[in-house]
Amino acid sequence: MNIYFLAFIAFLISQSEVSCEVPQCEKGFIIFDKPHNLLNGTYFPDGFKSSSPQLFPDNYSCDFKINVPQNYFATIQLTVNITSSNNKSAPVQAVDQMQNVEQVFSTKSESFYFVSNGGNIKLSTGNRKVQFGFSIFWDTYQFIQTKYLNFSRSATLPPLYSNMPDQQVVITADTRISATIVPPGVKDSFQYLRGVLFFDGTTRNSTYLGTGLQLLTGKSQYVSTSNQMLISYIGDSWAVNNSPIVLQDYENTKSICKFEWILCPDDQDCDGIVSLDGTKGSVALQLYHNKFETSFVLNKTLGFGKLEVFDGGVTKTNLITTYDVNRSELNLPQEFFGRLTTLVFTGETASLTFTRRDDAFDETTSFGRKGFISSDSYGNSFQEAFHINAPVKNPDTIFKVNIATADLSGSTTLIVYCYRYIELTRELSFNSTNLPPLNTTITFHGNFLHIEYYPNGTDSSKLFLNFDIEKSVTRSSEFFFACVIVFLFLF
């Protein structure tokens, strides 16, 4: 008898959990205000857990208004799960104080941030089976550190500012500030960019420009009206540290209408194609890698237009090469060695093929190839080695090297080796007492070239050289031409 009774009680409990009453939304909206005790978060529905969100009935609609007082912000952890749907529209919308709308289809404990005066979470289930819930915690701004960053219009390598929890930065430029952002390595970290806030001035009372995520997905630039800007990070995830903000003087970027990017996890080659549409104006593609990652290699270009490559930001002094995207075969593959490389496309449309394979730059498919080698960040260098192969089965290839810049101050050295398989055919070593001839062609013979640059550890260390790969007259060709000469002489 006890067993049947206990089973009946368990049945009643399970039924009550399944049919848990959904909060009414009689006015079409529910308002959430900051509690007196900030340690007490607000949960909707009551008792919400992200591991088992409440199932809401069909055709349930409600606008959840989250108020945020001045000098506060709110962190929302949102969970949405659709168990059945034939509807292509999102059941949830997140709307910030500037009326920017994000469509949310499915997520678990995803972070959203609202600043003064607040924002809205809108739910409309329709005929879908939607599980839904969120938590809200309000807090005051408590920045441990305020940094100050100045840069000039002529800076070739623009500041790359990486956010950290409880930190903000005041930026000052010569004229106006352009801020763009590169993506973190994984898409799951995008959510934390909502906590990166941009203000048009030096305080949080200045005009609010938007979030880091809006900047990234909008493929745009935030521009200050004066020469100062404030960037604050109100989240607690260190993932944003892998998504640096690129700061430039707006006079250098004002002709660019769109900023593209490549999402590439640290441990992947990321072979892929980037399409650029220049019909409405110039388009920039910003490539970023940290010093422990392989940099991007451009393998192929198609289309109609001009592609300018800048080592760092967009300034006339650091333009390193220009491609006609319809005729670039002999200039590829080309690795872009700097921490930040900006490609600016002007024209109709272009298709660019990239990879981060370690050996992609080494490969040469045909004679006549031209390219360049530069130190990492071209003026902010670490120990580096470069390797270039001749086309397959061509052991007597000619490598022509022209050194444009080589900082060999202090203990810095530059060594160029050329091999024919395992045979060393030539070695040249340069240092502060034995400087290389600049803008002069140096010729090597073999089937691969190896270059080592060991800077002295200062930010001034830099190397830039151009190379050409040409076909050599082989021994069999020499014998053939000798026979022809003898034949003509005798007959």
From TrEMBL:
Residues 251-356 form the DUF7591 domain. This is CUB-like domain-containing protein. GO terms for cellular component: membrane raft. Residues 23-141 form the CUB-like domain. InterPro entries: CUB-like_dom (IPR003366), DUF7591 (IPR056013), DUF7592 (IPR056014). Residues 150-234 form the DUF7592 domain. The lineage of its organism: Eukaryota, Metazoa, Ecdysozoa, Nematoda, Chromadorea. It comes from Caenorhabditis elegans. Residues 1-20 form the signal peptide.
